[in-house]
Amino acid sequence: MSYPRRKMVISIFGATVGLMAGAPLYPAQQRSPQPMPSPNAPNPNFPPGLDGPDQKQPDKKQMDRQNQAEVKAGVEKLYQLITELREQVQKSDSTSMLSLSVVKKAHEIEKLAKQVKDRAKG
Q1: Chain-wide mean pLDDT for the chain?
Q2: Between 41 and 36, the higher pLDDT residue
Q3: Of 69, 82, 83, residue with least CA distance to 116
């Protein structure tokens, strides 16, 4: 064999041996990487809540009763405010501008109505 052919055969043989030697390492590189846990994820080894593992969940029925009582109280307060607003508007002259107290009362009614609506939604 001539020198360039011999050099080519030796380089092919060396490359083949190198690939065969690296073949057992190749499947190890194919393993899927282990996912890293999120730093914001809760620790499963830590007990839930700040009070420890014996923390109890709030009673849904009790919360519903309390919520209903607050909605009823809010509706009663709304009724009272609306009645007062109605009386103030009836006392005022229809040709003049509404007083500032009427505008404030209307704003208070709006806020309370929104609170009652949100509480009624749950």
Answers
A1: 77
A2: 36
A3: 69
> How many other CB atoms are there within 10 angstroms of residue 77's CB atom?
15
Q: What percent of the chain has pLDDT over 70?
A: 70
Answer whether residue 6 shows pLDDT above 70. Answer: yes
Q: d(Cα 13, Cα 15) in Å, to the nearest integer? A: 5
**Cβ neighbours of residue 75 under 8 Å, at least 6 residues apart?**
116
**How far is Cα 96 from Cα 21, in angstroms, rounded to an integer?**
100
What six digits make up the tokens of 6?
């011999």
- Six token digits for residue 120: 């009624």
pLDDT value at residue 29: 55
What are the start-end ranges of the H helices in 43-122? 60-91, 100-121
Rounded CA separation 52/46 (Å): 9
